[in-house]
Amino acid sequence: MAPFGQPLNVGWGNPQWIDIHNREGYIRTMYSVVFHRRPNGAIPYEEYVRSVYHVGQKTEAARIRAFVERLGQEGSQRLVARRWAEKMNDVWQLRPGQHRIFYFWHPEGERYVILNGYRKRSRRTPRAELARAESLRAEHLGG
Questions:
Q1: For residues 139 and 125, what is the distance between their CA atoms, to the nearest angstrom?
Q2: Could you give the domains of the chain?
Q3: Strand partners, 35
Q4: 131 and 116 in contact (C-beta within 8 Å)?
Q5: What is the reported pLDDT for 19?
């Protein structure tokens, strides 16, 4: 089992179904999901989930992880139909409760790349959070 903080999926397998680790064991996903890793080795998504977990919101942290796993199982289109995901410029956001997790589809790698997260405190997405997600996307794509 992968330790806490490792990407959900780093392996190769059948192109339609890929096994990933979770805390209970293996689950099957249709889409590959990886986390963006900064040049300094930091993983912004994991840092956010850890911060949620360490302030005593263990249920919320588990819910965030469940939404990321669901993204791998169902893809963006099904989540958009349920209003659990939304397109924001060049990135998308998952909507688990009061939390927002930015991600994008990497067509060359055929995978979802999870970027970062934040706690939503107002009706509108803060421009600084969206700009950060877009800069992380550009960093991941090498630009």
A1: 21
A2: 31-141 (3.30.2310.20)
A3: 114
A4: no
A5: 42
The confidence score (pLDDT) of residue 14 equals 34
**CA 126, chain centre distance (Å):** 18
**pLDDT(96) > 60:** yes
**Residue 26 and residue 73 in contact, taking contact as beta carbons nearer than 8 Å:** no
Looking at residue 28, what is its pLDDT? 55
- The CA distances from residue 35 to 108, 114, 126, in Å, are 16, 5, 22
Task: Look over the chain and give the mean of its residue pLDDT values, rounded to a whole number.
Answer: 81
DSSP states along the chain:
-PPTTS-S------SS-EEEEETTEEEEESSEEEE---TTS--HHHHHHHHHHHTT-HHHHHHHHHHHHHHHHH-HHHHHHTTSEEEETTEEEE--TTEEEEEEEETTTTEEEEEEEEE--SSSPPHHHHHHHHHHHHHHHT-
Residue with tokens 């958009």: 80
